[in-house]
Amino acid sequence: MKRIRILHLLKSDRPKDNVVIKGWVRTKRDSRGFSFLEINDGSCLKNMQVIADSSLANYEEIKKITTGSAVAVTGSLMESPGKGQQWELKAEKVEILSIAPDTFPLQKKRHSDEFLRTIAHLRPRTNKYGALFRIRSELSLAIHKFFREKGFQYIHSPVLTGSDCEGAGELFKVTALDLNNLPQKDGKADFSLDFFGMEANLTVSGQLSAEMFALAMGDVYTFGPTFRAENSNTSRHVAEFWMVEPEMAFSDLADNMNLGEEFLKYLTGYIMDACGDDLELFAKYVDKNLMTTLEGLISSDFTRLSYKEAVEILDKSGQNFEFEVGFGLDLQSEHERYLTEHYFKKPVIVYDYPKNIKPFYMRINDDNITVAAMDILVPRIGEIIGGSQREERLDKLETRMDEMGISKEQYWWYLDSRRYGTAPHCGFGLGFERLLMFLTGVINIRDVIPFPRTPNSISF
Q: Which terminal residue of the chain, N or C, has fewer Cβ atoms less than 10 Å from its own Cβ?
């Protein structure tokens, strides 16, 4: 017989016979002539209580079952006389698939996030992380649903690239050369002899690829892993993270801001509807104000103000910020949170940033000082979306690349897109893990990705 997910059983409208469930034992307690097993198969937060009585042929073996053991249970789904649960399973057969030793580290107690990071291979079996990664799965689906409903095409951008989209230089190098015997040229590694005939990196963004397709197919998006070799141990940084990057043709900065706001509201509402039980765990144990924050995002119109106006507000705030505030300086997390949590008390879109703190591809405004960039800031997280109208004018783009020392020869193909049928277009990047932090109240990015990649951490 085929197993039934516990999630579906708990939604049953009547008793059922010949039910098969398979999962892991969360707890077991023995009573006179009975054993009560709490089984979870990962499909939902709630366990299925299994009643195994002494009439079962292998009852003495059942009594040896430990927390963490894997079992298959066949029985009848019956209404439960106990409080807090509608259904329980009266076992007719309990097959022990494996017995976990007493050293199984996830016993019936609360474990710290720091400890669970050391056993990332087991933490999905806890209530908190099972719930979190179900939300992560559902959020991935919601992203694709949103863009499909909007008519966007899904593009698979390359993970291996010769480009540095952000120009920050924090790249993971990829090579097939013998690291113990690197060929040399002019005192440096000769990458002309490498697999691709030039230096290659793990991508920091799929944006440049998405632009090429937007200028051929209209509205497109990428959704995949990106990498940054930033030696940072903060709660906001990991070396491997996922980005959602839509790109729209024949669109400007206002269209970009509208899409970003609509996108965040859609995803938040979707998760509140689809993951109510799992979200409730985070509202109860992680952030008591979580539901108020999420409802506030959905119900409010995002405030929009220029970077200059934002700096003026921060400068007059009277706050003792750790990082300096001033025109031409990038906004830090503390500045972004002040704007969203204290001054406006809702999400904020800041636009028209100084060109000297932004990448080469952003469209120069008429003042020749700022670019048509925008960041969407939300409470607790700060920046969650960053984007811009792209510079579609070939002469302006070439001038900007010269000013920033970016090789036009290396980006010949990117310049070609401005040479052949150029058009206004825009896009943004949303940090998938940062969105998960916002939706769950989790404060460390390491806890919203299955196997976090941070400095000196790649064991799993």
A: N
d(CA 141, CA 339): 31
Do residues 116 and 450 make contact, with C-beta atoms less than 8 angstroms apart?
no
Residue 397 has phi, psi (to 5 degrees) of -65, -45
Closest to 88 in 3D by CA, of 71, 73, 70:
73
Domain membership of residue 443 (yes or no) is yes
- Whether residue 112 lies inside any domain: the answer is no
Decide: 443 and 235 in contact? Cβ < 8 Å.
yes
Terminal Cα distance for the chain, rounded: 35
Q: How many angstroms separate the Cα of 181 from the Cα of each of 172, 197, 198?
A: 20, 17, 17
For residue 294, CA distances in Å to 15, 323, 357 come to 37, 28, 31
State residue 163's pLDDT score: 82
CATH number of the CATH domain containing 70: 2.40.50.140
The answer to whether residues 170 and 228 touch, using CB atoms and an 8 Å cutoff, is: yes
pLDDT at 284 > cutoff 70: yes
Q: Is the pLDDT of residue 311 over 90?
A: yes
Q: So what's the pLDDT on residue 325?
A: 96
Amino acid identity of residue 331, one-letter, is L
Q: Give the Cα-Cα-Cα angle 445, 451, 452 (nearest 5 degrees).
A: 40
Q: Determine, yes or no, domain membership for 113.
A: no
pTM confidence score: 0.94
Residue 389's H or E segment, with its range, is strand 382-389
Alpha helices in 286-328 (DSSP H): 290-299, 307-315
Q: What is the DSSP string of 113-126?
A: HHHHHTTTTTGGGS
Instruction: Report helix, strand or coil for 161.
Output: strand
**In terms of residue numbers, what domain contains 215?**
123-168+204-447
- What pairing do the DSSP bridges indicate for beta strands 160-161 and 173-174? unpaired
Q: Residues 109-131: what's their mean pLDDT?
A: 94
Count Cβ atoms below 10 Å from residue 46 Cβ, excluding itself: 17
Tell me what pLDDT residue 110 has: 85
Tell me the residue ranges of DSSP E strands in 57-212. Answer: 70-79, 87-98, 153-154, 160-161, 173-174, 184-185, 188-189, 200-202
